[in-house]
Amino acid sequence: MRITRRAALGAAWAAPALAQGWPSRPVRCIVPYPPGGPTDLLGRVVTQRAQQELAQPLVIENRPGASGTIGAAEVARAAPDGSVFLVNTSAHVIIPHINRNLPYDALEDFTPVTNMAMVPLVALVNPGLPVRSLRELAEHAKAHPGRVSYASSSIGGAQHLAGEMFKQIAGVDMVHIPYRGAGPAIQDLIAGHVQVMFDSVPAGAGAVREGLLRPLAALSERRIAVHPDLPTTAEAGFPDLVISTWYGIWAPPRTPAAITERMQRAVAAAVEEGEVRARLATLGADPVADPPAAFDAFCRREYAKFGAIVRAANITMP
């Protein structure tokens, strides 16, 4: 982020005073995607309950464009006074590895506040593919190099990176077919135009119930509630294949700890509330609200993990 030294020093001097009595007015929460998408829906579920803890409205504002980077850039430039936050997905630490020309640093130009939820991915295949486990999928792909295709909802998303992780860990050659959204990808998976997809639980839940898709494993450290009989990737023989879409909140750089910590406590209270947990479950999301320091460490680990995947796969923006 490009800021002047005078502006930085001014913000540093003003921060302690701003933190006292926060929030004293409505707070903007920027979602860098269109209304109605998973980030928007999940962000609204959590902030609508969290605002009760803060006694001030948390107002969702959608700023879509450029894979979420337009809204993120707005927050990176904002004053560190607790008036605005970024509500984003794990794409926040993926896109910088794919687009090297961002006007901000995803780690250094934001103050991590907390994560809100984790959405585990599931390996799905068209039933016409003669495999019933991840091991069999790896063996089939090795026997048919370049002839097995996997779908994703976009280039550089968690679904895409999950496919690349599997390719790298299993040592197989599969063809990536990106779509504009998960819906069209799922439809083509059901139709057999592609054979494999690594997607969130809700995306393919109906097709799995109807026998139109076959789940192979959960790409998570523990079994998931909606598919208790589905093995984890570790149980399936691929312990390093753990990846999820996750959602978090960031503040502008140099936002006082008193503000970020209070926001985190409000989010933690929100995701523990029964109705919120139930609504998150319908989105396939497991609630989590780590303190700022733990969330910062998590972001840095994920940044490094995703960066390694992107470099190995040579993923670039189209």
Per DSSP, what share of the residues sits in E-state strands of 2 or more residues?
A: 15-25%
Total separate domains: 2
Number of strands: 10
Question: Can you tell me the overall shape?
Answer: globular
Report the CATH architecture of the largest domain.
3-Layer(aba) Sandwich
CATH class of the largest domain: Alpha Beta
Helix amount: 40-55%
Output the CATH topology of the largest domain: D-Maltodextrin-Binding Protein, domain 2
Say which CATH homologous superfamily of the largest domain is assigned.
Answer: Bordetella uptake gene, domain 1
Mean pLDDT: 91
Structural class: alpha/beta
Instruction: Give helix and strand order, one letter per element, not per position.
Output: HEHEHEHEHEHEHEHEEHHEH
Q: Tell me the distance between the termini.
A: 24 Å
Structure, briefly:
The chain has helices at residues 5-19, 38-54, 69-77, 95-98, 134-143, 158-170, 182-191, 201-209, 257-272, 274-282, 292-313, and strands at 27-31, 58-62, 84-89, 111-125, 149-152, 175-178, 196-200, 214-218, 244-251, 286-287.
